[in-house]
């Protein structure tokens, strides 16, 4: 049998911004189709930088990034990826449906085809009944669901999420985490999710890539061997807590070496 084609290959990719900030030292990372990966680490360790390079929004200063073995920035290839940001960035004057339909309108998809796809995406995020609402009538968590639906409406294979629930209260965030896992299970998407919350990373991921700052680098690549489906009870299991403790210790160790370097 042939080896599966990796969804994402990061090959010695580095990033030095024009002002000289060394945001990422060379990173090597292979992600298989269907994995749920989190990039975990403190502010400034290069998580967003790496995610933007995977999305093709930022060229690496050195190294290469491939999606299904094809260069990320190859304009001839449709990589079928969607990016969800921390801000829902919805058009306030337009209905939920119109907001979700936007990527299809931009791609010239006829209404007869886009209608059912919008309905399907809204169902997936649990907002099947809210298509006619305006964004301001929805809570912050629901607005984020709309933003995720807008990401799903193009039926991507790869979903990139940059701290999507970072601005939400803990209860809402936990609920969205659980629902996101259910959505992942249904769709079989490959997900790369950025967070600085250790417990969120352990709860969601099949694999955690832990990063540290100054300079931005990967310090651990950890498989999370907790069974799916995961629910609120998973957050209190001894195995869950052991993984959280382990990552916390690693993070402290990486931060201590930062401080020492600074002196
Ligand atoms: P994270 O997502 O982990 O918080 P970032 O990828 O946003 O980290 O940033 C990594 C480092 O690069 C930080 O030191 C940040 O200040 C710096 N940085 C991010 N974007 C730019 C930019 N456009 N120009 C210069 N430095 C940047």
Detailed description of the structure:
The chain is built from 7 helices and 10 strands. The protein is an alpha/beta fold. It folds into 2 domains: 30-45 and 57-68 and 157-263, 3-Layer(aba) Sandwich (Rossmann fold), CATH 3.40.50.300; 88-155, no CATH class. The strands form 2 sheets. A 6-stranded mixed β-sheet has the order 6-7-8-3-9-10, sandwiched between helices. Strands 2-1-4-5 form a 4-stranded antiparallel β-sheet. Strand 9 and strand 10 (217-223) form a beta hairpin. Bound molecules: adenosine-5'-diphosphate. Adenosine-5'-diphosphate is lined by residues 17, 19, 21, 23, 41, 43-49, 216. Adenosine-5'-diphosphate binds next to helix 1.
Please give a quick description of this structure.
This protein is α/β, with parallel strands linked by helices.
Mean pLDDT: 93
The ordered string of helix (H) and strand (E) elements is: EEEHEEEHHHEHEHEEH
Rg to the nearest angstrom?
19 Å
CATH architecture of the largest domain: 3-Layer(aba) Sandwich
Basic shape: globular
Counting DSSP H or I runs of 4 or more residues, the number of helices is 7
Q: What are the main properties of this structure?
A:
263 residues, alpha/beta, Rossmann fold, 6-stranded mixed beta sheet, 10 strands, globular, binds adenosine-5'-diphosphate
């Amino acid at each position: 049998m042939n080896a599966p084609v990796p969804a994402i290959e990061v090959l010695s990719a580095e990033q030095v911004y024009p002002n000289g900030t060394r945001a990422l030292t060379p990173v090597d990372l292979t992600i298989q189709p269907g994995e749920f990966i989190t990039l975990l680490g403190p502010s400034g360790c290069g998580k967003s930088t790496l995610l933007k390079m995977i999305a093709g929004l930022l060229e690496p200063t050195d190294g290469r990034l491939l999606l299904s073995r094809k260069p990320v920035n190859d304009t001839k290839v449709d990589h079928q990826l969607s990016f969800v940001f921390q801000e829902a960035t919805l058009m306030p004057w337009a209905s939920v449906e119109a907001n979700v339909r936007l990527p299809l309108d931009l791609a010239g998809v006829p209404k007869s085809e886009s209608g059912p796809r919008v309905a399907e995406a809204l169902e997936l995020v649990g907002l099947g009944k809210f298509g006619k609402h305006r964004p301001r009538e929805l809570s912050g968590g629901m607005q984020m669901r709309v933003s995720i639906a807008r990401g799903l409406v193009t039926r991507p294979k790869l979903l990139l999420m940059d701290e999507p629930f970072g601005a939400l209260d803990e209860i809402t965030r936990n609920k969205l985490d659980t629902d996101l896992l259910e959505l992942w299970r249904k769709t079989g998407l490959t997900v790369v999710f950025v967070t600085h919350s250790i417990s969120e990373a352990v709860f969601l991921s099949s694999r955690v890539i832990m990063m540290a700052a100054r300079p931005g680098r990967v310090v651990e690549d950890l498989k999370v061997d907790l069974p799916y489906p995961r629910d609120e009870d998973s957050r209190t299991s001894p195995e869950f807590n052991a993984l959280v403790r382990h990552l916390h210790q690693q993070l402290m160790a990486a931060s201590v070496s930062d401080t020492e370097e600074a002196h």
